[in-house]
Amino acid sequence: MTISTKELKQNRQVLIGQLAAFEGKILRGSLIESYKKCGKPGCKCATGAGHGPKHSMTVNFPKRKPENDYIPLEYVVQVKEYIENYQRFKEIIEQICMINREILKRREEL
Ligand SMILES: [Zn+2]
Fold first, then answer.
1. H-helix or E-strand containing 40?
2. Is this structure's pTM higher than 0.90?
C-alpha cells in the first residue's frame, strides 16, 4: 500500500507546522560542563573535582575556528532545551526532504 501524493503533502504541512512551533528556539552547538582547580594552596578543590560546574557552548563551523562561549548558569536549562530542539528541527527538515524526493520520483507537482 503506497501513500498518495495528496497525503504526502498533508504530512508535509504537518511537519512545516512542527517547525514553526519551535518559534526559533533553536541553537546549534554542544554544551560542555567543566570543573576547574583554582590552584590556591589548601583549597578543597585541590583534592576534589574542582570549582564548578561552569558551562560553555562550542559551535563548530566548516573552514573556520570553533566558537566557544561561557554560558551563565541562569541560561543553562534554556540552552540545553534549544540544543535539543535543534536536533529535532533537523530531523523534521530531513523528513520534509524525504517527502519532496518521493514526490519528485513520482514526477508530480512539488
Ligand atoms: Zn579551589
1. none
2. no
User: At CA 86, angle to CA 82 and CA 90, rounded to 5?
Assistant: 170
* 3-state secondary structure (DSSP) of residue 63: coil
**Which amino acid type is present at position 31?**
L
Ligand 1 centroid – CA 72 distance (Å): 19
Contact at 8 Å (CB) between 71 and 79? yes
Per-residue pLDDT tens over the stretch 18-60: 999 999 999 999 999 999 999 998 898 988 889 999 999 999 9
What's the angle, vertex CA 33, arms to CA 32 and CA 39, rounded to 5? 125
What distance in angstroms lies between residue 80's CA and the mean position of ligand 1's atoms? 27
Closest to 70 in 3D by CA, of 34, 42, 99: 34
Q: How many residues does the chain have?
A: 110
Phi, psi values for residue 57, rounded to 5°: -115, 130
**CA separation for the pair 85, 24 (Å, rounded):** 9
